[in-house]
Each structure stands twice: as C-alpha cells, then as structure tokens.
C-alpha cells in the first residue's frame, strides 16, 4: 500500500513539532501517524526532510545511523539531549506526541 500525501505531511508535521532537546523514534512517529512500519518514516525522512529537524528522529536503540552518527550526535548534544556511550538516552530525551 502506497504512502499517501496526507500521511507524508502528517509525518512532516510531527517531526517539525519535536522541540529542541527532545527526540522521537521512527516507531513513535509511525504509531502516531498510523503507519504500518517505522521504515516508512525512514523513507520519508530520507526523501523529504531537508527543511525539518531531522536530527531529532532516532532509531529505537538510540543510536543514529552510522553515516549520520557524528553530525546527528553533535547537533543533539548542542541542544542538551543526554547522550551516553554514543547513543541517545531515550528515557531522558524522548518526546511524547499529544495526539488528542
């Protein structure tokens, strides 16, 4: 099933709503939008996120993708996101979307 423009825009809105110092996982966003897979969020982020705070979206392990590692962790650290041993402390930094 193809991802609709509405779903893509919803993902973009949620990513834009993550405040400095907080992160969300691909899975958090997929659940909030009602997508079947966090990979769909990853695809959207790869293709349509240049104008978004992409660095605030992280994998469920708290580790950034290897090709983004230094850039992403540097940006997050600058915003005050707690980072322990090269991964984001999700307990301390995870943003919860208000879906009501």
Q: Would you mind describing this structure in some detail?
A:
The chain has 100 residues and is mostly helical. The protein has a single domain (5-93), classed as Winged helix-like DNA-binding domain superfamily/Winged helix DNA-binding domain (Arc Repressor Mutant, subunit A), CATH 1.10.10.10. The chain has helices at 5-17, 26-33, 38-47, 69-78, 90-93; strands spanning 24-25, 57-58, 83-84, 87-88. A hairpin with a 2-residue loop joins strand 3 (83-84) and strand 4 (87-88). The radius of gyration is 13 Å and the shape is globular. The N and C termini lie far apart (26 Å).
What would you say about this model in short?
The chain is mainly α. The chain has 5 helices and 4 strands, in the order αβααβαββα.
Strand order of the largest sheet: 1-2
* The top level CATH class name: Mainly Alpha
Strand content: 5-15%
Number of domains: 1
The outline comes out as globular
CATH architecture descriptor text: Orthogonal Bundle
Low-confidence stretches: none
Radius of gyration: 13 Å
Count of runs of 4 or more consecutive helical residues: 5
Q: Sheet with the most strands?
A: 2 strands, parallel
Helix content: 40-55%
Structural class: mainly alpha
Overall strand count: 4
Taking the alpha carbons of the first and last residues, their distance comes to 26 Å
According to CATH, the homologous superfamily is Winged helix-like DNA-binding domain superfamily/Winged helix DNA-binding domain
């Amino acid at each position: 099933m193809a991802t609709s423009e509405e779903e893509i825009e919803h993902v973009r809105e949620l990513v834009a709503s993550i405040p400095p110092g907080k992160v969300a996982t691909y899975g958090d966003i997929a659940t909030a939008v009602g997508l079947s897979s966090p990979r769909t969020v990853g695809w959207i982020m790869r293709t349509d996120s240049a104008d978004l705070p992409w660095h605030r979206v992280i994998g469920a392990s708290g580790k950034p993708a290897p090709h983004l590692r230094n850039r992403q962790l540097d940006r997050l650290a600058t915003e005050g996101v707690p980072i322990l041993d090269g991964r984001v402390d999700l307990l301390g930094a995870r943003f919860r979307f208000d879906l009501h």
